[in-house]
From TrEMBL:
Pfam families found in the cross-reference section: HATPase_c, HisKA
Organism: Flavilitoribacter nigricans (strain ATCC 23147 / DSM 23189 / NBRC 102662 / NCIMB 1420 / SS-2) (Lewinella nigricans)
An example Gene Ontology CC term for this record: plasma membrane
Descriptive protein name: histidine kinase
EC number annotated for this UniProt entry: 2.7.13.3
Length: 334
């Protein structure tokens, strides 16, 4: 509410400045015209007294009047030029202030969303691990072996979830300051195929499809960084797909680069959101009512790592529904 009041007050001040400037401009223009008319009349009387002119036409054609008229014209142009410069400066200033205000509001909203999401993402696995440990302490002797194994696996999954979250936070901080790629040669085909296979086991209800042409495709790049990239893309595809989930990853080799596509049949991304999904902490919708997990760091990390490698990433609509992320990477990291 305070921000809205300050914004309304700033618009009132700007409107007052424009009206005041218009008033003073009209007044100055009129004063300038009155001064010219007075000087013209005084000059005419003097020239008549000296016998230099006899008619009105002689006065308007005289050298003295032409000099006076030129001075008046220059003053008019000067007033008009300064007025135009003031208006342009004011408009640019208002635009810059408005843009800065919108950026500040956007950053504040994103920070709030991040705090809400990170609080939920931290509390949920911590609460699960705490519950599992309390169960072990109170009922360890009464639990069957299969129950112990189930609880242990659940605790490990939550610990992995915390580990991934912390790694994403650290990586996002490095990407803005001192991140450097550690490139080496590795088999991209094997990396991606193994990744898809593990996710297929993790999400049995999802139909994962993988295709690489040619097979045994090698690349010189940061293996850990690209692993984070494709894990984020595939996990996002699972997260935002509903019902009959199908996720397709295709890899193709070209003369100077390698192209990877990750396509899903999920809810899709609106054209309005496409330009913002790679912003840090940005997530569609409100954190107060969101049901999907995440912190808004995944796609930011993806974009930055791809950029560090000298590649590019694009997002488009899948047909008939869903989203396609297209990545182009050089064969040798820049």
């Amino acid at each position: 509410m305070t921000n809205i009041r300050l914004r309304v007050l700033s618009y009132i001040v700007i409107a007052y400045m424009l009206m005041a400037f218009t008033w003073w401009s009209v007044l100055l223009w009129k004063t300038l015209d009155d001064a010219f008319q007075a000087k013209s009349a005084f000059l005419k009387i003097g020239m008549i007294a000296e016998g230099k002119i006899r008619t009105e036409m002689d006065f308007y054609q005289s050298r003295e009047y032409n000099i006076l008229e030129q001075q008046y014209t220059r003053q008019q142009w000067m007033v008009a030029g300064e007025g135009l410069f003031f208006v342009i400066s004011l408009v640019v200033g208002v635009w810059l202030i408005n843009r800065g205000y919108n950026k500040e509001v956007y950053a504040t909203r994103q920070s709030r969303n991040f705090l809400l999401s990170i609080t939920h993402e931290l509390k949920s696995p911590i609460a699960s691990i705490k519950l599992i440990l309390e169960t072990f302490r109170k009922r360890r002797d009464k639990l069957a072996p299969e129950q112990l194994e189930k609880l242990t696996n659940s605790g490990l999954r939550e610990a992995d979830r915390l580990n991934i979250l912390v790694n994403d936070l650290l990586l996002s901080a490095k990407l803005e300051t001192a991140y450097q790629i550690h490139a080496d040669h590795f088999n991209l085909d094997e990396l991606l195929e193994d990744m898809v296979q593990k996710l297929d086991e993790k999400y049995p209800a999802v139909d994962f499809q993988y295709q690489c042409t040619p097979r045994d495709l090698s690349i010189h790049a940061d293996k850990m960084g690209l692993t984070s990239v494709f894990i984020n893309l595939l996990e996002n595809a699972v997260k935002y797909s509903k019902g009959d989930q199908q996720i397709r990853m295709t890899v193709s080799e070209h003369q100077d680069d390698i192209r990877i596509e990750v396509a899903d049949n999920g809810i899709g991304i609106s054209d309005q959101e496409k330009g913002r999904i790679f912003d840090k902490f940005y997530r569609v919708g409100s954190e107060d009512t969101r049901t999907t997990k995440g912190t808004g760091l995944g796609l930011f990390i993806v974009k930055e790592i791809i950029k560090v490698h000298g590649g590019r990433i694009q997002v488009s609509d899948n047909k008939p529904k869903g989203t396609v992320f297209s990545i182009t990477l050089p064969k040798i990291a820049t």
